[in-house]
Structure formats: C-alpha cells, structure tokens
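User: Can you help me understand a structure? I only have the sequence.
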Amino acid sequence: MPAADASTESDVGDVTVADVLAAQARLRRFLPPTPLHHAERFGTWLKLENLQRTGSYKVRGALNALLAARERGDTRPVICASAGNHAQGVAWAAYRLDVPAIAVMPHGAPATKIAGVAHWGATVRQHGNSYDEAYAFAVELAQRHGYRFLSAFDDADVIAGQGTVGIELAAHAPDVVIVPIGGGGLASGVALALKSQGVRIVGAQVEGVDSMARAIRGDVREINPVPSLADGVRVKIPGFLTRRLCTSLLDDVVIVREAELRETLVRLALEEHIIAEGAGALALAAGRRVAGRRKCAVVSGGNIDAGVLAGLLTDIRPRPPRKPRRRRAETPRSPAKATATAFPTPSPSPLQAVAPAVEEISL
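Assistant: Let's start by predicting it. Here is the structure, written out as tokens:
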C-alpha cells in the first residue's frame, strides 16, 4: 500500500480538505454529530453512524450535494441509483430542501430500505436485478429528462459530505481510523479530513468483494462480487475519483472473511447492544487485525432487515471473548487524570478551529 505524501495529501484529485470543511459548514444546521461508543471487549471506539438520520452516513454526502447545487443555482430534480442507504439519504435531503427526487433501486433491495425511501416522498423505480442495472437505467433517465444524476460515491460533493465524519473524529485524536469500503466515498472523505492530523486510515473490504483493494494494486478490471451480508459494499468497479484518493491516502486495506463479518455483527448486537447492517460491522471486523492505542471503527449503517438479523442471532454462536488481562497497579493519579477518557483532549487542530458548533433547527 503506497503511503500518502504529506505534500499532496490535501489536494489529490478534484476534492480538497477545503471542500470537506465547506461541507461541515453546510451540514451543521441539519445533522448533529453522531456519538462515539467504546466497545471495551473489542478494544475499539465506534463512530455510530448507524444512529445517523436515515440510519447511515450516506445522508451526509447526499445533503451536501443538494445544498451545494442550490448554492450554484442548480434546481434540477435529482435521481440516484442505490441498493438502499444512498437512496434513503437522497430522499431525506430532498424532502428537507423540497427538491424532487427519484431513486432507482434493483429488485431484491431490502424492503426496509425501499420503505425508508418512499417514507420521505421520493419516487421509487425498481429496475434490474443488480446495482449496475439500476445504475444504467438511472443514468438513461437523467439524460432523457435532464435530471441531475447523483452518484453514491464518485462525486466531489458527496465525498466532501462523507468526509465530515472525519472532522467529527478529529476532536478525539484517534491514531487509526478503520473505514468500510464499497465505492470508496466514505474512505476518501475521511482520509482527506484526517491525514493532515497524522491519523492512519485503514480500509476494510470483504473477501471476494474487494474491487477497491484490487484497483489500488493496479487491477482495475470489473469483478463479479460474491454474495455477502455486506450488501452495501458490493461494487464491481470503484469510482474514478475515489480510486485516486484511496490509492494516495489509505495506509492499508484489510480483507475480512464472511464468517468474521457475521460473527462480529452478532457480537455487536449481543455484547454492545448495537444494531448494525453487514457493511456497518465491517470496519470493526477488520479492526481485530489493526494495531493502535486509540483505534476507531466507523459503524457505517444500521439498516438491516429484521429477518436477516433474526436468522443471524439464531444460527451464529460467537466464541466468548478472551478474558481481559489484569492491569498492573499504577501510581495513583489526580482525580482529574483518573476520569480522563481513552481519547485525550488534544490541543486545537486546524480542523477543530474552523468546524463550528452544531445547532439543530427544524425546517
């Protein structure tokens, strides 16, 4: 994995740190920061994007793209192709901004995600049996009717919006952040936001669903992703922008076995009481192979079908976690130090200085 060069880390491709900061300024009025949770049995902090509006980080990129379009005077209806989370993000953002939205979803998309899109008033068109077929149909409709097609990941405004996850993490000074990768929008944005802070960024993919890892190695051929619980990251070819950014900025990509992913999702539910979808548990599953004193894994979404979750909880019996090692007696500390969290309070960083406080408003 090529290491990122400090001289180019903030201006690779057509998206910059400035774009991520601009996205943060737009989104702060609509989206409060998602919480951190310390999963002690995993030894990892979790960024809970499963508690985000619509249950996934995808709403960040969708909302930023629509707000940026409004600033540019672009009032066209928006259309997207998605297996679920991007469509829900677009639908929610379009509802808040009163923009007509169409979501093309493949047959077989999770019923909970289809219902979530329709709930926010977007038009749902089901077409094809895969994301790629839905994508081709959405592009055709956009060209035929003059709609704005909004990619789920290969769009500068979308990448910048996803990068706001990294800005929120910067205040907690992690030394490594693990991010699930499908098309690469989240990993690209988080890496843009945090590389200048000296944070290692590690991507996570599933065995047989690893198009980005292959592209980084120079193999850009289309793959046929195997069936996986992580349906949200089943991408045949990663984005062009995201491929360039991930190649330049990621420190590593960890490939997770399907069995590891399923066990991690069940452990999350039973031990940490956190409901995640398959892609949402992917970063934590990869984190078992990543060293770091202050590791943070992004739980990217929680929109799992109830039947799928029930089946996993019935069928999978995770191995009990190893008993914690007893710490040696330490020199008594002052009360202030004794109550400090595992993430120390850092000195203000450039990202923190310009990231304004969140204010919640209703539209």
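Now, to help you interpret it: The radius of gyration is 20 Å. The chain has a mean pLDDT of 87. Let me know which part you'd like to focus on.
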